[in-house]
């Protein structure tokens, strides 16, 4: 329903012109089950007088049989129209509603809260510019809050409004509101959305929905409708990169050849130089044709037909881009995939991929990792079940132009179609091309040679997927005789028994080969540790758990090795055995030689040992036997 304006009676044409020129905001409501999403929409429509009398009468009658608000009208029934939704009191499918105010037109997508309908929520979010994430003030941040926030962010929604609903049930407490805002901030810190706002409200009572709440005078921000009317979305569109996917070649007669499509990004002007992809042929725009006549300029979202000055071969699925724009052509790319079918995604199986207006056959070559959207953690996956989300490697049978989804959603997204049933089984957002990159990159380094960094086709994630676990470095440090080698060897035996891929680097063994040219002074000992760290990093990148056993007495040397690894991939184990115990053990007779002056720079006697300040694990071999120490290490791992 449109906004009721006085112009409707006095000048209908002026009203239609005014209405046509309003900008449009598409937004979704999401959150946990029974957080009040449908009620909020109903309240927005009701309080802004956007409900027809017959609609109000119908839901008033339906409230008596299907309502959940007692004697009051259940406004949620405005959007919960399916019989199963009214029976269960939940939203199942995406419900769309249109309304307008003096300032703006709106299309609302009411999305389901149940985890099993995540794919429906993703569908509604795919065209939205803003997401309202509802939180029940009684329960605070829930699993579905994290799930929907992540999906909204994944789909490139830049404006998030966290609506803390049912404030009437917590006595409109500012303390409770502040507590939930702080709790949600931990999620917000992991999201890329630049605009996140908070509104306390009661959808049932109408507080801060259309009108400011007198019960929450402590809240100084705008009511929900005011916020929706004024949020700035004009800068969300990509007006820089020209993208026109050709949907249809219009050839009504010999004198006209036009290329039809919806402008996905950029500004197209008559006379502008363009390039067709993937052919690379160039020409200039002769006309921009629409139903209402020719245009001088076209903007994103407009359906247009373009004619060119030159006769060049352009077909459905090709793109028109700016002449000087470098758009990579690739047969494989990284993408985030949302799986939407009961039958799991199978890596290696052939599917049809639809990218903008182009169709191509291909497969998911590998699943780099699956995202647990409840915790935002990444984990290994062999296939994708219904509603799963994962970073995957897509391989196509022909090169296609590739865009980053966050730069150009219209050309950076795709759907996956089952070749047998023709059912859409998945949707994806492109992250980056894979085979269009240079095989090397220029990295800062201190090598004396002029070198570049060569990329490998097989990545660490692929190796870890093959091994079934991540690569790590477990660095044992401590005095000579502390028990480092014994513990490292026992740990490797236990990890191998459990099926992990490991490699043990022992201090004495390394000096028989890789570091046989190094002595025992401070400089050579530092170089010894540096070399071992580089080798350990290579093993970890191969997806192997590398275990090292080195005295490594100097803290700065150990910290330098730590810097070679990502956070949590380097585990420092301090074998904290007292010097007198180590000297009593003295299995190699080294302490006695050092006391006699036959060994110089011996750690603990004539050279210092710097105890780790914050080792991940500390093992005291006096208090713990070997079995207990290994159990402690396994618990940490």
Key descriptive features of the protein:
single chain, six-stranded mixed β-sheet, alpha/beta
Please provide a written account of the structure.
This protein has 637 residues and is α/β, with parallel strands linked by helices. The chain has four domains: 230 residues, 3-Layer(aba) Sandwich (Rossmann fold); 79 residues, Elongation Factor Tu (Ef-tu), domain 3; 105 residues, Elongation Factor Tu (Ef-tu), domain 3 (Beta Barrel), CATH 2.40.30.10; 177 residues, Rossmann fold (3-Layer(aba) Sandwich), CATH 3.40.50.300. Helix content is 26%, strand content 27%. The chain is built from 17 helices and 29 strands. The chain has a seven-stranded antiparallel beta sheet with strand order 7-15-11-12-14-9-8, with no helix packed on it. Strands 2-3-1-4-5-6 form a six-stranded mixed beta sheet, sandwiched between helices. A six-stranded antiparallel barrel has the order 16-20-18-17-21-22. The chain is globular and about 110 Å long. The two termini are 59 Å apart.
Q: Enumerate how many helices there are, as a single number.
A: 17
Share of helix, binned: 25-40%
Overall pLDDT: 84
Please indicate the percent range of residues in DSSP E strands (runs of 2 or more). 25-35%
Main sheet: strand order: 7-15-11-12-14-9-8
The CATH topology of the largest domain is: Rossmann fold
How many β-strand stretches? 29
Q: Uncertain spans, ≥5 residues at pLDDT below 50?
A: 80-92
The CATH superfamily label of the largest domain reads P-loop containing nucleotide triphosphate hydrolases
The CATH architecture of the largest domain can be given as 3-Layer(aba) Sandwich
Terminus-to-terminus distance: 59 Å
* Overall SS class: alpha/beta
Which CATH class of the largest domain is shown?
A: Alpha Beta
- Gyration radius, in Å: 32 Å
- Domain unit count: 4
Overall 3D form = globular
- Largest sheet data: 7 strands, antiparallel
């Amino acid at each position: 329903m449109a906004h009721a304006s006085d112009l409707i009676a006095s000048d209908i044409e002026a009203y239609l012109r005014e209405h046509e020129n309003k900008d449009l905001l598409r937004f979704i409501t999401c959150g946990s089950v029974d957080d009040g999403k449908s009620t909020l929409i109903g309240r927005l429509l009701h309080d802004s007088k956007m409900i027809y009398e017959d609609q109000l009468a119908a839901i008033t009658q339906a409230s008596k049989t299907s309502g959940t608000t007692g004697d009051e009208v259940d406004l949620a029934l405005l959007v919960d129209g399916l019989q199963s939704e009214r029976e269960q009191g939940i939203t199942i499918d995406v419900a769309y509603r249109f309304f307008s105010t003096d300032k703006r037109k709106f299309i609302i997508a009411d999305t389901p809260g149940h985890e099993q309908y995540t794919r429906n929520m993703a569908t509604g979010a795919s065209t939205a510019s803003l997401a309202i994430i509802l939180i029940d003030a009684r329960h605070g941040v829930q699993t579905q809050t994290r799930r929907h926030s992540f999906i909204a962010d994944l789909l490139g929604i830049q404006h998030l409004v966290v609506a803390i609903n049912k404030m009437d049930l917590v006595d409109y407490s500012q303390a409770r509101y502040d507590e939930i805002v702080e709790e949600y901030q931990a999620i917000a810190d992991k999201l890329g959305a630049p605009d996140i706002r908070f509104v306390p409200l009661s959808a049932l009572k109408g507080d801060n929905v259309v009108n400011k709440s007198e019960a929450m005078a402590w809240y100084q921000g705008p009511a929900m409708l005011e916020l929706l009317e004024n949020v700035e979305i004009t800068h969300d569109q990509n007006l820089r990169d020209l993208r026109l996917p050709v949907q249809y070649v219009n050839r009504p007669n010999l004198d006209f050849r036009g290329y039809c499509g919806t402008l996905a990004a950029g500004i197209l002007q008559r006379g502008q130089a363009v390039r067709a992809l993937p052919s690379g042929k160039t020409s200039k725009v002769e006309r921009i044709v629409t139903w209402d006549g020719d245009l001088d300029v076209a903007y994103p979202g407009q359906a247009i037909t373009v004619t060119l000055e030159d006769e060049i071969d352009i077909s459905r699925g090709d793109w028109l881009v700016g002449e000087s724009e470098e758009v990579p052509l690739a047969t494989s790319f990284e993408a985030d995939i949302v799986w939407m079918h009961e039958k799991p995604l199978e890596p290696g199986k052939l599917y049809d991929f639809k990218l903008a207006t182009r169709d191509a056959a291909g497969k998911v070559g590998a699943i780099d990792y699956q995202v647990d959207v409840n915790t935002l953690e990444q984990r290994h996956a062999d296939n994708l079940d219904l509603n799963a989300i994962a970073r995957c490697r897509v391989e196509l049978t022909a090169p296609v132009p590739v865009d980053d989804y966050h730069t150009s959603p219209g050309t950076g997204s795709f759907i996956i179609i089952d070749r047998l049933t023709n059912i859409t089984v998945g949707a994806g957002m492109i992250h980056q091309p894979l085979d269009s990159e240079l095989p090397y990159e220029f990295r800062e380094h201190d090598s004396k040679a002029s070198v570049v960094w060569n990329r490998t086709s097989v990545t660490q994630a692929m190796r870890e997927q093959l091994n079934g676990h991540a690569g790590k470095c477990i660095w044992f440090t401590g005095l000579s005789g502390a028990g480092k080698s014994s513990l490292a060897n026992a740990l490797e035996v236990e990890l191998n028994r459990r099926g992990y891929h490991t490699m043990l680097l022992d201090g004495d063994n390394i000096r028989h080969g890789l570091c046989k040219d190094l002595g025992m002074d401070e400089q050579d000992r530092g170089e010894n540790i540096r070399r071992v760290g580089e080798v350990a990093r290579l093993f970890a990148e191969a997806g192997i758990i590398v275990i090292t056993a080195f005295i490594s007495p100097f803290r700065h040397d150990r910290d330098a090795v730590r810097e070679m690894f990502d956070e949590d991939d380097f585990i420092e184990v301090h074998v904290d055995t007292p010097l007198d115990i180590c000297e009593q053990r003295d299995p190699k007779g080294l302490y006695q030689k050092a006391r006699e002056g036959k060994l110089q720079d011996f750690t603990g006697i004539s050279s210092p040992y710097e105890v780790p300040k914050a080792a991940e694990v500390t093992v005291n071999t006096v208090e713990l036997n070997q079995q207990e120490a290994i159990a402690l290490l396994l618990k940490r791992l």
